[in-house]
Design brief:
56 residues; mainly alpha; 1 helix; 96% helix; rod-shaped; transmembrane helix; DUF4044 domain-containing protein; membrane; transmembrane
């Protein structure tokens, strides 16, 4: 009986850990894409500024 109860507790903990890991990877992925988009826009604007400076 004790072994079955321990096994159920371990299964519940594993399920909770899997849920938390899934949430973290999703938030990390979104953060990574936001940083990539921000840097892309920054470098695009920087490049446009350099082109305008050189052409003037």
């Amino acid at each position: 009986m004790k072994v079955e109860q321990d096994l159920e507790e371990i299964k519940e903990r594993l399920t909770q850990i899997e849920i938390k890991l899934g949430q973290k990877s999703t938030s990390k992925r979104i953060l990574k894409y936001m940083i990539i988009v921000f840097l892309s826009v920054f470098f695009l604007l920087f490049l446009i500024g350099i082109i305008q400076f050189v052409s003037a």
